[in-house]
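Technical note accompanying the year-one report. For the benefit of new consortium partners, we illustrate the data format agreed upon in the data management plan: each record pairs a sequence with a structure-token string. No post-processing was applied to the example shown here.
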Amino acid sequence: MADAKDDTKDPEQLTREEAAAELATLAEKLNAANLAYHGADAPEITDAEYDALKLRNLAIEAAFPDLKRDDSPSEQVGAAPAQGFAKVTHSQRMLSLGNAFSDEDVSEFDQRIRRYLGLDADAMLDFTAEPKIDGLSLSLRYENGTLVTAATRGDGQVGENVTANARTIDDIPETLSHAPEVLEVRGEVYMSHADFAALNARQESSGGKTFANPRNAAAGSLRQLDPTITASRPLRFFAYSWGTLSEPIGDTQLECLDKLGALGFSTNPLTRLCRSVAEMIAHYREIEQTRATLGYDIDGVVYKVNDLALQARLGFRSTTPRWAIAHKFPAEVGVTRLEAIEIQVGRTGALSPVARLTPVTVGGVVVSNATLHNADYIAGRDSTGKPIRDGRDLRVGDWVTVYRAGDVIPKVKDVDLSRRPDDAEPYVFPETCPICGSDVIREEGEAVAYCTGALICPAQQVEKLKHFVSRAAFDIDGLGAKQVENFYRFGWLRQPADIFTLRARDAAGEKLLLSAEDILETATEAEQTRLAEDLGLDAYDEGQALAALAARSQTPLAEQKGWGAKSAENLFTAIEARRTIPLNRLIFGLGIRHVGETSAALLARSYGTWAAFQGDMQAARDHDGPAWDTLNAIDGVGGVMAGALVDFFHEETTRAALDRLLAELVVEAVAPPETDGSPVAGKTVVFTGSLETMTRAEAKATAEARGAKVAGSVSAKTDIVVAGPGAGSKLAKAEALGLSVMSEEEWRAFLG
């Protein structure tokens, strides 16, 4: 059996037997590692070894996608909440941070904030800078000075209740004096290097298992079901933020940290006030140089706007605050050979080139694939035609420098022309889709090329189904990417509506949506081979495949390989639970080009109901008229997105598929925001001219928070026009229509 750690043989060079054997070994080792870490709190391999095994698994699966196992480790994402812990819904979401990877990124962060707030380049703007602890996020809720709940971040909305365990950590006070009635303290649980070494020494002397690294030891210790185990572990806690408060604890970030320190919490002593980007970067360099001597693990420096009033004005994006960013330490690099350039086709038809590399260790992780972005990137230029890498292109056979952006995503940084093979040919981007053979087009102004195959392209069909069931869309538990691929291959799923008829077809013993002959006829040679293996055939034979497909379709899911009565029923129950779906999730799940999660939420808020949304998209068919104007007037919807939305609703086959889906669903309207009697709730507002006391972005955010809809143009549906100095055609149109026009001062007074 192949050794899972032997990365000397490229996955492409493995035989099918070697690949299958190695995947089995990797699944066994990775599953054992997961159980050791999550179940026994005793990791048997390091993070780097674990990541290397997982990347090796991904590389082999990419080379032999038909050999991907039902228990593939690549389907295990993140750490599920431990059984035995109750769930806690955070009163305020615990968000993540945006990342900066260079000094230029930090400067842009500063400039972005100044633009949002309307501050000049020389205006005073203070930031705090503090080490980014590599541990486990924890939220502590105190009521009347008593710790009542401790919860992990989880998915940001719901975490694990670890209150009993948190009470055993010395750095976490159980009671507070002179604290607000409600105080939610947020911070990081970690283990110092010295404590980690001492813990491992004790474990070793007592015959116990040692731990892989401080971060895993800290995370595993906090998640123990037995609090006495947590109590025996030397965990520490740095407080760095807060959530719900019954009353303010300061006017600035530093004042609040001082208050938390006075209440008995440990705060990081390396936190500094910085009055310029130069000071921020200088402190970053200082921390970077002393990183190895700090005594605990960090992976960057976090910058935050110091003034809390400015933080409130800046607010949040969907997943990150605008007023904070993490400046990550540089990624390590490696040099390796570019073995091949392959094209992947996504759900929108986008062709994404991927570099297949001779495996190389970068930052403790084995890298065998890297993104190449698009045709321009391969050719050595950006989308505007300007050179990148000094115009050096990438060719198969080249020796390239690889880095991991944010220590996660492998990318190609540069190429060594002195080592380029004499026979290396410039890469020619495909003009036809490698999956379905349809023409490939690249629209003017677009960096990405697209397959025109749409519904006849299997890659797009499968990817659209995967997107439909993704976490931010329908999020159907038990129906992940692997299941979607299998069900599509067997002819059980072709369109989203098919998901909701699966139970009935399963009960009737006929899950095929098209004939077995059609499935085999439209399958490529590679798909036929994969299908034969899925069906348990020694080799592809059309007659045997037809019989096996029919038999599998007639066999209940509960009796299929890898399924059972409970897992099948759980899947059907999860599908039923998604028959009622919020409007924003439905819009996002449709996979309309240019419409992401944030845009879907914006559209849902703007239209409120599916009937209103669908009606306007149909009415705007000719890209003209009141409905078209209303769509384009939504602040955040441009002409490109508007065109994609309207055209989506008028492609005949798409329209039919959508009608089938809607027949299976109940679409929940978007509840209006809590506006507490806001005078602008439900009204459409347009800002024009120069605003003097707030920026346009801040004005928009304030209006939407009060329940208003902000439009980019004036129409008869506009309720209020806020006009500043220099207002031109929009003001004239508002006056001609007899609309309510306010000055900025009148607007602020109107809002109260």
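Partners are asked to follow this layout when depositing records. Confidence is low (pLDDT under 50) at residues 1-7, 37-43, 76-82.
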